């Protein structure tokens, strides 16, 4: 198998004849140059940071240096070097800066920049001087003697006055060049491992894959929501209208049938069953995508769900002030709230529940709390597992805090932008401050 790092190359017999010694030397030499420049830049920014001007620039310099070091790492590490940064949830410089400041990867890069500027680059140059500079100085002894004509002082310590002595020094330099190439590769491998550990933590994906996965998951969720709404429209405009027409036809037929006869009895049964099917179909359509959610948004839809809950539900006043959000976000949050209310009515023994929701800091946060006996476990088939996966596809989280004895809190957090006013059909509908009861 082809070696991927200097450490792997050291284990093979062809290492001295391969490109890995020169790769290792080049990596350490580049570290010395980049580190010296980083030292100068960070010193300058450190002075500016006394006036609070250089702090953002210091952070940005860490990002730039981290990117440059990941590119340079490819010289001695042939495995993919991913970018650990997340794609911002919204366009614009402000969203980008908020995302970067909150990321652990940003502070890792700044720590690496400080380490490189203070400790690593002198060690790189020292290893390069011993592993390459010393052998090359000995190899150049004959040239130094020929240039001087009388004597040559090799590495400022060894005085050579004759060509046989110079040839012995050159031979020693050749031997050292081969022998020291092995510890030089070990040092380069250690440096590369440290850079990878700090700049590309374990668990990150291949370059660009994080943004690619997020974008693909968002497309899948949007397609799923579009399909749900198409099915809801087809059922509403097709099957439901046919059932309504059938129910009316059966009702008119009952009026024309002789009363008390077997025909009237059969028509009555058929009319009753058609009405029941129509009711079930309307409930099914409401469960697929309720019209109140599509027309008025998440706030009124949550208030409507609270009104229909088996347990009295208080709806926080901030729910009615929710802006219109992306369709997939509104749908996921609505069904999470409905599932939470259904679980409260079935399992919690609660006397009252409360829903709060707000959109702040570029994210939606929905809380559903009850005063029941607690001990809720999503793994026992509460229906929240699928919702958690659906929310995760939107880069959100679903958290349940339910200690024995209660209370139980379900929290949904989804990063999303608020849609501009008028971009979605919304008519203001005041959410009630309390549910039934």
Describe it.
With 437 residues, the protein is α+β, with helices and mostly antiparallel strands. It has three domains: 6-207, no CATH class; 208-289; 291-437, Heat Shock Protein 90 (2-Layer Sandwich), CATH 3.30.565.10. The protein contains 14 helices and seven strands. The strands form two sheets. It has a five-stranded mixed beta sheet with strand order 3-4-5-7-6. A two-stranded antiparallel sheet has the order 1-2. A hairpin with a 6-residue loop joins β6 and β7 (408-415). α2 (20-49) packs antiparallel against α3 and α3 crosses α5 (104-139). The radius of gyration is 36 Å and the shape is elongated. The N and C termini lie far apart (72 Å). Residues 205-210 and 425-437 have low confidence and may be disordered.
Outline of this structure?
With 437 residues, this protein is an alpha+beta fold.
